[in-house]
Every structure is written in C-alpha cells, then in structure tokens.
Amino acid sequence: MRETHQLALVAGNIDLAEKPVRDEIATVFEQVLGHPVQITDDTDIVEDLGLDSLGVMNFVMAIEDFYDISIPLDRIAQVQTVGDLIHAVEQLRSGANS
Amino acid sequence: MTILAKHASYKLAYDALRKHGVDPFNVRFDSVLSPTEGMLDGRRTILLGTNNYLGLTFDPDCIAKAVEATRRQGTGTTGSRIANGSYDGHLLLEQRLAEFYGRAHAMVFSTGYQANLGVLSTLVGRGDHLMLDADSHASIYDGSRLGGAEVIRFRHNSADDLYKRLRRLSGSPGERLIVVEGIYSMLGDTAPLKEIAAVKRETGAYLLVDEAHSLGVLGATGRGLAEAAGVEEDVDFIVGTFSKSLGSVGGFCVSNSPDFDIMRVVCRPYMFTASLPPGVIASTLEALHKLETQPVLRANLMRNAARLHDGLGALGFTTGPHANPIVAVVMPDQEIAVTFWKMLLESGLYLNLALPPATPSNAPLLRTSVSAAHTPKQIDTALDLFAQVGRELGFLSSDRRRAGGVI
C-alpha cells in the first residue's frame, strides 16, 4: 500500500504528467463554449473565459463526466483558475484510485 | 469603501434594473383585499404570483381560529420550545401532520426555510454525502452548508446522472441522502420521483422530498408528489411549508424514522428560534382540515392552472413543461422581461419577475402562481393582458420563437 502511494507521489511531481490534464480540460472547454480557447494554469475560469454561474456549472459537469468523478461543492468553491481545477481533478482521481 | 462594498456587482445590476422606474423585488401593496386581489398605487390588481394555492388566507374559519387562539393564548410564545415549552397547538399540529401523511413522527419549524436548514444539517454531517438536484431551492443549498456533509450536485431531474454519481461513491463510507423537490419553484416542473426512488433503492441511499409547492396540490389526497407518483414508501423524509397552500407561515418534517425525536435536541434551527405563535398554529390546523375535507379546492386549482398554462401556450408563449399551479413564461432577454413585467403591473396584474441566476437557465422568467380562489374570469383577464402586452412589445405576432424557445 505504501509503495503505491509513493509511486503516485512521484508521478505527481513530474511536470509532464500534468500537461495532458490541461489539454483535456481545454478540449472540454471548447466543447462547452463552442470555440477554441487558450488556457494556462493562471487562466481565471470566470474572469478570463467569461463564464457565468450557469456556464461554470455546465462546464464543471462536463469535466466530471469526462473524468468520471464528482467534484463536491466545497471543492468547486475553491477553484478559481485552471491550475486550481487541474489540482482538484488530480486529487479526486488519485483518491478514487487509492 | 464600506463593509458592503463586496456586493458592488449586485448593486450595479440592481441599480440598472431600477432605472426602468420599478423595483420588482420591493413591490409595495397599499392593501391586500383577498387571496387574489390587492391595491397597488390605488389600482385594483390581480395577484397571480403569491403561491396562495388553495386561496385560504382569507378563509373565515381559519381567521376565526387564529383570532380565538390569539385571544386565548396570546400573540406569541416569546421563545423556543426547548426553553419556553410547547403549547397544546404545537403538539396537536404535529400529531395532525403525522396522521395526514400516515407517518409516525412530525416536527414543526418556524419557517419552511428553517425546516430545510434544520433537517438537512441534522440528517447528514461530516463524512456523509448529500446529493442535491442542481435546481434546488436556496434553503436546500444553505442547509447543505450548515451540516458539513460533502455536497454533490446532479443534473436537474436526471435520475441517470444521480445514479452515476452515487455509483462513483461506491466504497466510500458515510450515509447518502438524496434531496429533490415535489414541484420546482421557478418552472413548476416535477421531479421524476419513480425513477429517483428506484435509484435510491438500488444504491441504499435515503430520500428526502421537499413538497413545499406540492402539498395540497398534487396527489389524490393532496399529500404531494410522493403520493401522486405512488412512491411514498420510498420517501424517508418529507419537508414542507405552511406558507403556501396552508396560507400561514412555518415548516415541517414528517418521517417514520424510529429515532426521529432526537432531532428535537440536536437540530439547531429548531432549537434556537422562537416557536410559531398560537394564532398561526390555529389557522394552519384549520387550513389542513380544509385541505383534507374540501378536494374541490384542489380541483379548482388545477382547473385554473390548466386554463392559464393552455391559454398562454395558445397565445404563443413558451411556458414550463407541466400545467402545474406554477406557470412560468420564458422571456427572451432581461430588457423585455422587465418591460413586460412593468406593463403588466401597470395594467393591474401582479406576478413575479425572476432573473438569472435565480432562474434555472439564462432566460428571465415571468413567474405566475395560480390559486383555487381565482375565478375563470380573472384567469381570462390575465391572459388578455399577456396578449395585449405581448402584442405591444411586438414579439407575439411577428415571431413566436422570440417568446423563448430556450426550454
């Protein structure tokens, strides 16, 4: 069990491992918004992408479907940037796998 | 900068709205004349947005009971039931509610809002999972934050999405509580309760139904959606309010849960607020009696609802999916919605202007609620006014799709 955790930690520290999630999130954004978007970890989901509260909800639900996870409301409240979202998705996915 | 400066964006939006010369969230009636009429700026106005489903607010028997109880027991209890004790009326109302629903237990709260706050925060806590329909009422969202349970939102009225999310939780500890509403307050649509009950059974979750808008409205005897859908056995907790079909104020929860009464010493929104005054309890008891013994009220209500829903549809307006007592008309944008609302008000028709984010989509709504006390003539007058204003604003005859098409 401990070994599995250590492996997960190592994988989490490799920078490359985070990039696919950002790309996947960009793809989901494009599906929800209907046009291509440029995002970085610092992109503010509400301010920079112009989503209202309903748009955020639809986007979050699309992300949840994509990764087959549920992001609890208190976690959604902590997400402001794409980087926050990547962090939340990764935490929930690793939690689901442990 | 003041301490309230954090709400500046709301202030901007509110100020913009008031530039139309109206304040839809601060309408001041000169007086209210009956369940269906009030005076506004000296005009006789039809009330078509006050959730007075059975029209009992002016019922002579309900008023007489309230007066008698007030004379006998005073205007208020001046405190909570744990501090000041219960009056006979509190206990009688709980007993009568339990009998009406055929359940072992009932608990009365001082408002419907507090009933949701109290019940949700007490049933689930840290380590538990609360599954909320995305279109849940504010009291459900607020209650969900009070108890510390993990809150997961599922797509509105989607039993499949609910199931998917419960499946994702499999293996994690803690209870699961599903919360849905009998009739959703904005569009008047009902939950697919048969399907949701099946999900509940399969996943071992508990099910709570908020029947605030469906008590006295749905079901053969008025017990709400759970009765109408034939799944009362699957519903573990029913929450409701006295402030709509029963014409007073207050909330309640009924259940067969054997240890239900522990709530009386752990449920803070029940414990730390003043209990309902004797007059309110007395009129509520009488209104419940009317609800049970006068099914004609429900028949009249549904007749009026169908008349309004079908009439608006025939005029070319886009409404919610069901002919329930809440009929919402979808507006194309805020500008038209506010103007439409204001013109109706100035013509003597009061209803609710509902704006995003309080609405389930980005479309503003003109939200009406019908009463058993409306006469067919009042409904027809309302329809005439809708047609007249719709034509004046030029979006009825020219292009019907402009009236909505979002839903």
Labels describing this entry:
A: 98 residues; mainly alpha; Non-ribosomal Peptide Synthetase Peptidyl Carrier Protein, Chain A; globular; disordered N terminus; B: 407 residues; alpha/beta; Aspartate Aminotransferase, domain 1; Aspartate Aminotransferase, domain 2; 2 domains; 7-stranded mixed sheet; 4-stranded mixed sheet; 15 helices; 41% helix; 16% strand
Describe the structure.
The complex is a heterodimer of chains A (98) and B (407). By secondary structure, chain A is mainly α. Chain A has one domain (2-97): Non-ribosomal Peptide Synthetase Peptidyl Carrier Protein, Chain A (Orthogonal Bundle). Chain A has 5 helices and no strands. In chain A, helix 2 (19-33) packs across helix 3 (53-67). Chain A is globular, with a radius of gyration of 14 Å. The termini of chain A are close together. In chain B, 41% of the residues lie in helices and 16% in strands. In chain B, 50% of the residues are buried. In chain B, strands 4-10-9-8-7-5-6 form a 7-stranded mixed β-sheet, sandwiched between helices. In chain B, strands 1-2-3-12 form a 4-stranded mixed β-sheet. In chain B, strands 11-14-13 form a 3-stranded antiparallel β-sheet, with helices on one face. Chain B has 2 domains: 5-57 and 295-403, Aspartate Aminotransferase, domain 1, CATH 3.90.1150.10; 60-293, 3-Layer(aba) Sandwich (Aspartate Aminotransferase, domain 2), CATH 3.40.640. In chain B, helix 13 (295-315) runs parallel beside helix 15 (376-392). The radius of gyration of chain B is 22 Å and the shape is globular. Chain B has helices at residues 8-18, 60-73, 81-84, 88-101, 112-123, 138-147, 159-168, 193-203, 225-228, 263-266, 268-271, 278-293, 295-315, 334-346, 376-392, and strands at residues 31-34, 37-40, 43-47, 105-109, 129-133, 150-154, 176-181, 206-210, 237-241, 251-255, 326-330, 349-350, 352-354, 365-369. The two termini of chain B are 41 Å apart. The A-B interface holds A 52-54, 57, 61, 68-70, 72-74, 96 and B 134, 144, 150-153, 155, 165, 168-169, 356-357, 361-362.
